[in-house]
Amino acid sequence: MLIERNMSEGWLSNGYVVADREGGEAVFVDSGAPLEPLLAAVERWGVTPRAVLRTHAHGDHVEHEDELGVPVVRESTRIGGLEIAAIPTPGHSDDMVAFVIGDVVFSGDTLFKDAVGGGDFEQIRSAVMDVYMAMPHERRVLPGHTDETTIGREWEHNPFVRVWRGVEPEGTEPVRVGGEDATLIVWSPDYDGKGKAWVRFADGRDAIVGGSRVERGR
Fold it and tell me: How many other β-carbons are positioned within 10 Å of the β-carbon of residue 183?
């Protein structure tokens, strides 16, 4: 299997092209990054693109979709030698889908290196712990933004996963989020360098929010 990635300098969003073999068939995965390096790979490999797999419909992942000239696919299918499994993982968005192809999973904006996506807390936790962490630890994770990782690495090192596993305690730091008092349960790096936080409000609500929303040092 052949994979080429490109990343948008603005959104840091990834676009991929995956081929079963040189001279075979291919699919794109998301289209929020400039297409030129991906199209160059298509030409270099001598492959025929058949579809674009859309992890979710946010603008930073579909910007160039119409330029590809191939159908959008969001369900399990087989294209050439590529066996593609589509797994619904709502949370960051209602339409989020993980695509498993061979030993790789394209995780969209649900699982990142050292972080998880923002969105509905319980759905994100379920997607990460019940879907992703149940996968083989050697599986490569190619996310919707920046660096790839593996399931095993995130099992061991992702701050959210470690607390959900019970191997790290919940944090107790008082913070404010959107003018409300809260407790900082987890702080992690995020793909954009601004951090990602799991916070719990005084009424017991849990939320995953961008680090820029969290007022620390109270």
Answer: 17
- pTM over the 0.85 mark: yes
Per the CB < 8 A criterion, the answer to whether 133 and 123 are in contact is: no
145-159 pLDDT, tens digit per residue, is 999 999 999 999 999
Tell which of 165, 181, 203 closes a domain: 165
Residue 91 DSSP SS3? coil
89 and 185 housed in the same domain: no
Query: Structural domain tally of the chain?
Result: 2
Smallest CA-to-CA distance from 135 within 121, 153, 159, 162 is with 153
Which residue shows structure tokens 């191939």? 70
Q: List pLDDT tens digits, range 86-141.
A: 999 999 999 999 999 999 999 999 999 999 999 999 999 999 999 999 999 999 99
Helix, strand or coil, per DSSP, at residue 17: strand
Range(s) of the domain holding residue 91: 2-165
Say which CATH number the domain at 34 has: 3.60.15.10
The contacts of residue 183 (CB under 8 Å, 6+ apart) are: 171, 172, 173, 174, 175, 199, 200
